[in-house]
Amino acid sequence: MPVQLIRAPRPTAVESSLPARRRHASAAAPARDTDRERRQPADRSCRDAPLAADATATARPRTYPFIDRVRGVAAVVIMLHHLVGYVPAADQSLPLPAPVHDFLWWYGGLAAQVFLVIGGFVGGLSLSRATPDLAGLGRFLTSRYLRLALPAVATLLYAIALSAVVPAAWSAFPLFDHFSWTSVLAHVLLLQDILGYPSLLTGFWYLPVDWQCSGLLALLFVVHAAILRRHPALSPAARVATFLGLAAPVAILSLFRWNGDPAHEPFATYYFGLVFLGALASLSAAGRIPPAVFRAYAAACAVAVVLQGRPQPAVALAAGIAIHAVAARGATAGPRSAPAWVKLFDGLGRISYALFLVHYPTIWGVTSLGRGVAGDDPAALAPWIGAAVPASLAVAVLLHRFVEVPTVALAGRLKGRRETPAAHGAGAAPLPENAASVARQAASTAGLSTPAIAT
Known about the structure:
The protein contains 15 helices and no strands. The protein is mainly α. It has one domain. The longest helix has 36 residues, at 378-413.
């Protein structure tokens, strides 16, 4: 009986609670930063372009490069998860030990939860250093949309071209299950799931969720800043309490009520509780809130894990705790020389969003081409299956260089003029832990242009 080269993987125990369009959910997020972490005492800042690699940015004074490296590794894990899941001959062709193969198959897709937490981490730190207002929120949403949508549109065009070029007889199944130009338009607008269209490509469910979570987090900071402008004399503790009073109810409802409910799956409400965990981790590491606040919310997440019995929030909780522990040690101060293996992880971080987008159609194209040339014999298919990984990386580099980089430049031109707040002005330090933090942050960059939030 001939071996089918590519097939839709069967639902796993991990994924069985999700609708069909989510069963191969993955996420990614590109990044760029440098290395050699060095502790810094105050104003630990994070880069402003976490998901779409900001190729136009100059070296930032203090960054968290480990965040980008984690994203790069997670993107590779998700790519391998889909490779072993969609290619039945992979277990016979790839030189992977059986335990590694089984781990990637059963648990590799859970890396999506890590991206949710990382998105909250970067977004919380970026927004906490801004002076948000409604005009800036509009610019932010537009900039964020461009960074997400333009590379995704380029990927859709690439996948459409692949589907047209590869003979139908060479592939085990079509690249698109339900293709229509109306569905393409819905994807361009990041509305596909809300309008009832299944994602055309694996992982594209994440894009509207990222945009919604980014906007919801930014909106909470805008409302908080407006309250502070009306009540500038609030103490640091009252500022923290005000922010938590706005955001915590939404996050708690997301954790205990909406996460796991299929009716909320197309919306930010489903995921915001996990994104908020990352946001609190960054605010705690940067000294904007007491660490006890993060620990209390992490305890609430642990209760949700026990009550739900699902692996997704458990992975997010573990990621949040680990990221907080590393970030609390401090941010690095500018670029430094690094060993080759660190530069490799940095490179993966830069192209991680592009890799997330293009890996599935590339795997489909390369392995279908191999099936057409070499037939169904696993030994003959082995070089083609192995070539799918470097081919995905190469296409991701091209997408990053020729689409992402210009997109980041375009989005950057939408940023508003940055303003320097007064030392004790409303919104200058929305979440200070103490008076010294107010003074430090007043001297740092502020003003809402379009802080990028990634997941």
